Amino acid sequence: MKKTHNSPASTLDRLRRIEGRHNPLVKELRQAVARAERTEEGDCAIDGPRIVEEAIRSGLRFRAVFFRESALDRVDRLLPQIGGHVETLLLPDKLFDSVVPSESPQGVAALVRVKEFSLDDLIERVQVGPIVVLAGLQDPGNLGTIFRSAEAFGSAGLVLGEGTVSPFNSKVVRAAAGSLFRLPFVIAKSAGGLEEISSQLTKREVRLFATSSHKGTVLDRANLKGSVAIFIGSEGAGLPRALLGKMDETVAIPHAPQVESLNAGVASSIVLYEAARQRK
Fold it and tell me: What is the pLDDT, as a whole number, of residue 199?
């Protein structure tokens, strides 16, 4: 490759220039971005230098890294951190922007493998901290916040129920700030998945807590030690009635009466903090 700026020639030589939109790796990246899901090979799309560095720091396996041609300054910073076996591609600006649409392109994207977990994996960790179960949470910022708080306050992991926004949505990935790469999570795909999961948790002697804006045990009086799962409902409707019937207890976060309810991300963070405080 012709040297176009002051990067070492050996660094630029690692980049393979791609002109066509039909390149198999480019197609995989486009599919992963557009669908906000894993590819058939099991990889997800991430973008932005900070998130790519978080993925490196978290030990994720990289399939390919894509650089925007006008963002070659990212090459010097990132390539030395990426193994030589990883495909590194240089895309013209127009092609990159068509694959990774953004109002402010950050010039780098990647396909990475996020480890998959089972419900049993989470239950085995439940003494570490509570399992957080999300029922129909639709706001990407809320989900990203919950990932960060769950890792910060020692959660065993997350269960994402039917109707919950995909964890591979680009806004979720950015808001999670790397916690998505390290915290175990399970996606419950079927409509009745959370009812079945709640039954499995009960059989394994995990106590089930629902959160409420107004009714229930005041948070600091609830016993959140031991094997606990905390169920968080959707921003508007809360937990489905069928799920509420399976709960052992409902906890309420006290707040000023003129405030109707707390943001789901904030409420989850407060409950996770209280659980961590009690354990310590």
Answer: 94
